Every structure is written in C-alpha cells, then in structure tokens.
Amino acid sequence: MAHLKEQWPGLDAIPHPAGRKPDTLDMENSDFVRPMQRMFQWSRELGPIFETQAPGFGMVVVTGADLARDLFDDTRFEKYTGFGIEAFRPVTGDGLFTAYNDEENWALAHRILLPAFSREALMRYHPKMAGSVGRLVDHWTKTAGDGPVDLGESSVSLALDMIGQAGFGFDFGSFEGGGKNHPYVSSMVNALAYSVLPPQLQQEREAEFRSWVTTMNGTVDDVIDTRRRSGTSTDTDLLGMMMHARDEVTGKRLPDENMRYQVTTFMVAGYGTTASLITFCLYFLSRNPGVLSAVRAEIEQTVGDAEIDFESVYRLRALRRAVDETLRLWSPTPAFLRVAKEDTVIGGRYEVRRGGWAALLTGGLHRDPAWGEDVDAFDPDRFLPERVRAREPHLYKPFGTGPRACIGRQFALHAATLALAETVRSFDVEVPPDYVLSVAEGGFFMPENLEVSVRRRT
Q1: What's the pTM value of the predicted model, to 2 decimals?
Q2: CATH topology of domain 1-82+332-365
Q3: Whether residue 401 lies in the annotated active site
C-alpha cells in the first residue's frame, strides 16, 4: 500500500502475516470477531513489530518494549484520533476520548474535569459506590439459589449502577430490571458494537445507529435538564462538576453539547473498563485459590466485618496487586494509537514520517520478555514494590499514555477494588472446573459465557 509505505519508508523490512494474497492481502487470515486476539497471535509469530493490510487500509503494529519506549515519547508522538476512534465521533463528539488533539473543548474539559478524579473527589463518590456494591450483594444473596450467575452480566450491571449513581445521580435500575436493560444501555452497547464494524457493514446499519445515538442523547439531555431544574448547585458528583465548574485559564464553562459528550464518554469507557476488570479478576481469583486466600486474609485483618470505608480500599495491597496483574493480562485498552509529530526513528532503525502512525498492542507489551518467565501466567507478585521499582515504567500501560491517557482510571480502580473486596468477602464465586477461558471483544475484553456458582459465605 503506497500510503503506508510513504509513512513508513522501511516498510519492506517489517514482517507481515503469512499467506498474504495479492487481491485481499491479509483479510483471509484476519478474525473480524476477535481481531485483537488475532493480532496477539501475529505478534507472537512475527515479533515486536509487524504490519498488516487489507484493501484500502494498512497499519503498523508495535508490541516490543524497546520500540514502545520511543512511541511513548510525547515530544515526538501524540494520540492518533483517526482509525477506530473516528467511528465513534457521532456518539461522543469532542468528549475527552474522541476529541482531536487541537480541539478547544478537549483542553477546556481536561482542565475542568481533572479535579473530578482527585483523591478528594473519589472520597465524595465512595458512599454511592458502596451503595451500588450493597445492591449487588443484596441481589446475589436473594438469587444465589436460583442457578448459575452470568458473571459478566452482573459486573456490567454493577459498573453501570456505580457510574450512574456516583457520577451523575442517575439510576439505571440495573438490579431491578428483570434482565431487561435500560434503553440507554441497550443503545450504548449496540452503538459500541457498530463502531468497530467494517465500513461496508456500517453503511448497511447506519439508520439503526442514528436511532441509538438519538436515544442516548435524549437520555443524557434529560438528566442534565432534570439536574438544572432542580436548582441544585452542588459539585459533589461528576455531573455537578461539569455543570458548575469554570476553567481557571479561560473562565469558561463546558457547553451543554460537550457535557452530553462527556457524560456519554464516561459511561461508555467507564462501564466497559470496570466491568471487564471485575469479571476477569474474579475469574483469576477463583482459578488461583492461594491468591484468593491471601486476599481474604488481608481483608479480614484490615477490615474484618466492618464497612469497607474509603481509606480501607487503599490498604488492601494484596487485592490491588491482583487487580494490577489482571490489567496486565487483559487490559481494558487493548491497543492505543500514536502518530508522529515529526519525521523520526523508533528502535534506532524504523523510520516514521510526520503523520505516520502505529497501533501499540497493549496485550503484547504486557507480555514482553522483560516481564520474566511465563508471561501468560497470573502472578500478582509481579507487582510487589521491589519488582515494580526494578522494572521500566513504560512496560505497563493499561490506561494509555501521555496527556491523553484515561482521565478516569482512578475512578475505575477504586470502584473495582471496592467491589472485589466486598464480593470475595461475602461470597464464594466458583468458576466451573471445565470452563475454558474464551474472550469476547466488543470495544473491551470480557470472558465469554462465564456462568459461575455464587454462595453466601458465613
């Protein structure tokens, strides 16, 4: 592909998947259901850098730590907001995730919303997060004898409840819907799946996509209007901060349309990140009883039977190591894109022209040989303080990098750690012995068809 070769002059020296055809290129070897996992496979076969092409499209993919170090240099590279991200712009517009690097509202919102994810802000959100976890505990206690529990579905319900309640004062009725999603949630899930379809399939379903966007926009606008009519001027949640905070640099507030985009951005990014993390971590703890016992012993010693308050979450170091290791193996950000701000070279040999971009495959970076032996094994001790200090920091990037890294990562980590602590303290969650991990992709990774038995601990 001429355009790709213009961006990467040394393209011929970069390996590509075997079996490339002159007309379809790599399409016949691609997996449109699990595309990221196919790229994981290619990275194992082809090494720390490879390129893949389809008719009208091509990209370079990087997984190696040495090459990634260069891509993370913010003086030479920045977030690329083209491929993949562009498809979701009709939903999240100039929200923090899909905004272009030079859009005014990105910088405005970033400055206004940074305090909304500070330690002090999380302390304000904690009671509502704990209330949502309590609703899950009550739901599981009442239904524990009703048969297997879809762990992914329960985690999604919990994540939506936590974000809706703590972020926007909105109740999705996650545990009272009788298995039926709120229209906003159904539309969001459908729109997210649509955004990763090939262009020809997107064209066929464009009318449906527009209807989903209309439903989402209407719901968010109603939430904002209801808050405004209430006359509440508090900034104790994320929505309040959006509505009432002024930018210290310009004195401006967020425009209403941008508030809508920010709410949808946090819902889309937050529920997937949090639900995926909770589900995978409970899976790994069930499969690793020694780790689970250590986590439970720490909870007993730190909290006992008392309420898990804000400060207690930060003292659960064994659980946090399990969370970090879960993020290493199945990061909520499967890849992120970096574009060259100038003509440069990565790894001392691969030339990149200004405007040339690469996909950094997080799952490949997190399995680099620098992580030690058996990189596919779940080993929370990789995150013991002495081992973290001995490791180069750029090896671990579960939430992206640079100024455009996930602004809500501390919200997600606090919510997930709190939920996991209460769940493993209150329940035995058992994965069937014959379950083989299969991972679905739909904007984020999620264990597929994971039905577990749940028993209240006494």
Answers
A1: 0.94
A2: 3.30.43
A3: no
Spans in the chain with pLDDT lower than 50: 1
Out of 92, 273, 279, 423, which one is annotated catalytic?
273
Listed by start position, the domains of the chain span 1-82+332-365, 93-328+375-456
pLDDT score recorded for residue 185: 85
Structure tokens at 99: 């905004």
Q: Is 281 a catalytic residue?
A: no
Mind listing the pLDDT tens digit for each residue in 213-244? 999 999 999 989 988 888 776 667 889 989 98
CA dihedral 144, 150, 155, 158 (to 10 degrees): -50
* Residues 418, 130 contacting (CB under 8 angstroms): yes
CA distances from 439 to 36, 98, 182, 323, 360 (A): 10, 25, 25, 18, 20
**Residue 312: per-residue pLDDT:** 97
**Active-site option among 362, 406, 423, 444:** 406
User: Which helix H or strand E contains 12, and what residues bound it?
Assistant: none
Residues 417, 292: contact at Cβ < 8 Å? no
Return d(Cα 251, Cα 233) in angstroms, integer: 18
Report how far residue 309's alpha carbon sits from residue 316's, in angstroms, rounded to the nearest whole number.
Answer: 11
Active site residue 444: no
State the pLDDT at residue 453. Answer: 96
Q: Which of 168, 209, 399, 427 is catalytic?
A: 399
What CATH number is given for 93-328+375-456 in this structure?
1.10.630.10
